[in-house]
Amino acid sequence: MNEKVLGHFLRYKRTHADRAKFDVPDIKHRTPGLTRDEVATLANVSTDWYIRIEQGRTGVSASADVLRDLCKTLKLNQAETNYIFNLAEEIPPTTDQSTSYDSVQRFVDEQMPNPAFALDQNLTVVAANKMYTAIYGNFLAESALRRHLVFRTFNDPHFRAVMVDWENYASALTAKFRQLYSRTPDSKVLFEVYSAVKDDPVFKQTWDQLKVEELGEERLLLNVPNAYELYLIETFLKLLGAGDIIGVQLPGDEETRKKLGEMVND
């Protein structure tokens, strides 16, 4: 943790804050910006604790919740908030993506005829194009739990039937889920998913073996009704400035490319 740089940044933002934009008394100060007392009060932390953070004292660390409150109090933008969390070696909070899902949907639609989908930071499917739903089922109107990639992999009979090498795919996804869970161990969303799949034999075996993987390229062999076999190469893209991850499944051979084109025209 870079305490000195973190403290310097907080002090700079505090002393350069426009008092007119904050819920503080309109009184003249000898120095510009907000006082430490005012920041501490607005952020619901003790003044002594805030001073220790701003002074960059070694061994004094703020929790993610405190950092989030300080960033909100100082009206930091997303880039500044990410900077604060990076200095504190914490995972930056994601923004409310509700206003950006239209653009995410347009992006995955543009990937046609290739199956494409979008995941939030928890691996919940938040958008998909028509080819993806044609192959894996249209579940976008279901609950967040039922839209979670891990939940669907283990609990959706259609998904299991389509995926020829389901067991290896499910095992690899379990290893990726462990990595995700390690970053946010207090996540209620991930705990709910874990509780729903922990008794599956494939999940349990992989979990007990402590396998860990990052999201990356996967080669998929699918048995799609009325389309025979499809060989797809799945890759992931992280959207800058957002928590969303785009998954695109590209044809792995010319025969699959041809079949995807035929499916669009059906």
Automatic annotation (TrEMBL):
GO terms for molecular function: DNA binding. Pfam families: HTH_31, MLTR_LBD. Residues 103-260 form the MmyB-like transcription regulator ligand binding domain. Gene3D superfamilies: 3.30.450.180, lambda repressor-like DNA-binding domains. It comes from the Bacteria. This is Putative transcriptional regulator. It comes from Lacticaseibacillus paracasei subsp. tolerans Lpl14.
